[in-house]
Amino acid sequence: MLETLKTLCERNGTSGREENIRNYIIGRIQDKCEYQVDPLGNILVFKKGRNRPKNKVMLTAHMDEVGFIITYITDDGYLKFDCVGGIDEKVIVGRNVTVGEKQIPGVIGLKAVHLCESDEREKAPKVRNMYIDIGADSRQQAEEYVEIGDAAYFMSAFEPIGESKIKAKAIDDRFGCCVMLKMLESELEYDMHFAFLVQEEVGLRGAGAAAYTIKPDYAVVIEATTAADVANVTGADRVCCQGEGAVVSFMDRSTIYSRELYKKAFQLAAENGISVQTKTAVAGGNDAGAIHKANAGIKTLTVSLPCRYIHSATSVADTRDMASCYALVKLLSEDFANA
Predict the structure, then answer these.
(1) What are the residue numbers of the active site?
(2) 43 FRET partner, CA 20 to 30 A, in 115, 116, 174, 225?
């Protein structure tokens, strides 16, 4: 699974520009199952299992990552940009990026600190004051490589760190895509639907369309969520901890989850020796927010991977938690199919 995750994370695909991810996934599944690409760009997949289910179950993960979009090119060749998805401005300055289909290397810059007024030094930098430097000397030279509307991406290598962790960009949510690919390339107990979704990071836009088309009875959203188990953070503020297993939410900013399904996840985990934990903060949101209220309502649960430094140039995840997430998602999908 790690090799697949590496390939997915190293490919670029912001919201609305998921084609590199979509093409890779289609290449992996096209001979193994039925699929279609809807007008928004979601990949909707059906795979037969050994048995017909009592309930239609849909598993989902989103293909897009946070990034940037070029909005203007200055006379002296710098690129002005805006964020695609929620990125904390404090993690942007000085980061290496690639721009456009040609993957032009650049660095995100800001006015030198010695030129800032005292009040500017004390405030977090604003995106409107930043720029991407690709080494161009003029607008004309920059336009040889970049167009307004091009996407820009964090440049970050996929690497192992410590005894069980990896670091990479876009673990949110290439991990979920990786889980679904592994399931699609294995024999399933029940017929199952899968949706590789677009534009989650800008408002859960692909999820509602996919749910409307598939019309499942149950949905399992596979995600990554904030792990704040870092220095000087204690108690509930840690949200979840790496090495303690899959994360199941009772509520976030877009969904109040079914108490029944929440308890079912912990029951199945306990019965099968799977590490699982509660997300101890009502924060964030994911495609469940659009899915659970689609059609006449869909029973929905989210299983998340604890991920440090999410929505930044480099996130960190633990391979032990990846294994727990995969095992729990597989059990939940089978249980919901036969509920």
Answers:
(1) 200
(2) 225
